[in-house]
Amino acid sequence: MADDSQTDRTDSKxxxxxxxxxxxxxxxxxxxxxxxxxxxxxxxxxxxxLADRRARSxxxxxxxxxxxxxxxxxxDQIVAEQVPRxxxxxxxxxxxxxxxxxxxxxxxxxDAIAERFEAAVADLTSAxxxxxVCTGFDTRGVPxxxxxxxxxxxxxxxxxxxxxxxDCPVLDLWxxxxxxxxxxxxxxxxxxxxxxxxxxxxxxxxxxxxEVAADPDRPWPVEQWRPPSAVRRDNIQWxxxxxxxxxxxRLRGESSGDEVAxxxxxxxxx
Length: 270
Known about the structure:
It is a single chain. The protein is of the alpha/beta class and 270 residues long. Helix content is 43%, strand content 10%. The chain has one domain: Rossmann fold. The chain has a 6-stranded mixed sheet with strand order 5-4-3-1-2-6, with helices on both faces. Helix 8 links the parallel strand 4 and strand 5. The protein is globular.
């Protein structure tokens, strides 16, 4: 529950005045490059929607946003590096999406990951106004990752149960059917495309009670038929360009985020 000082940071209509995003590449926005080369992503897009809502009843520039997420981070790294900073910033809202990189690693236990996730949720909810948590995606149609669907489903069930225990809103990515379309994903098939990030931001806004301009689960345009031979060529190209390097980094114990710092470490106006 939020204390009186946290409640004061929202206006009389309950508009969120400050937001901190915590997580890995999904929340950093990988797959959604901006004009300056910095990734945008669903969290940045959600921040814009929250700022617009805040502007209806507060002075311009009153809304503040931080994004602490870094690609490649495992849950324990996020808890060690980002959660203390989020507590220090003490915003009205934290989005906490973590554990996906752990789930993708062979031999990891979703039950054990969920226990550590719950401890972090308990820590965050004691310090900030609202903690929104994210489930995993349904990977039924994703090459390679479809084999991890049961593991992801188990972790997703844990996340929903944790949300119930701590009264957290849930960004349910498993049930968002529009992101099961291949066009919701970037060329690497591991990160969302700009349109995929947009739809996730719209769903997150809905979960927080905001009105959005379009239904995030709206159907995609009918796609032109492609012969199986073209699909096979795409799959081979993807494996060479993205899958093999990704596996290589895992075997070498490297991360794509080893030299990356958070893009918005402080709560600043948009």
